[in-house]
Write a structure and sequence with these properties.
Distance between the termini: 44 Å
Order of helices and strands: HEEEEHEEH
Strand content: 25-35%
Structural class: alpha+beta
Shape: globular
CATH class: Alpha Beta
Radius of gyration: 16 Å
CATH superfamily: YgaC/TfoX-N like chaperone
CATH topology: Yope Regulator, Chain: A
Strand order of the largest sheet: 1-2-3-4-6-5
CATH architecture: 2-Layer Sandwich
Length: 115
């Protein structure tokens, strides 16, 4: 089941104080970015945040579950926690601070057709 755009818009609105946050639709679900870093996923209208030690310290009790079948567990953030935009913003910021910079993308090479 695909996530709704309004769910993602609401989450982005709640965390806009974190800085440069954005979302990109992927396979009917959404990836949330802090700058270039992937910090969260929205799958089936549920929010999942990447696991970090700083994030774990911020969560009083954390539920971990995979956002989709075959994925590693992420922190599951229940809908009632979305209401506290300041707390959610802090979670996104501390998570992003602990994540490594994304690897540089290799330039695409043009393939020539051999006949």
């Amino acid at each position: 089941m695909a996530s709704k755009q309004k769910t993602v818009d609401y989450i982005l609105e709640q965390i806009e104080g974190a800085g440069e946050v954005s979302a990109r639709k992927m396979f009917g679900e959404y990836c949330i970015y802090f700058g270039e870093k992937t910090v969260a996923l929205v799958c089936d209208d549920e929010l999942f945040v990447k696991q970090t030690d700083a994030g774990r310290r911020l969560l009083s009790s954390c539920v971990e579950k995979p956002p989709f079948p075959g994925a590693k567990p992420w922190f599951f953030i229940s809908g009632e926690l979305w209401e506290d935009g300041d707390w959610l913003t802090k979670l996104i910021k501390v998570t992003a601070a602990q994540l490594p910079e994304p690897a540089a993308k290799k330039p695409r090479t043009k393939k020539t057709l051999v006949r």
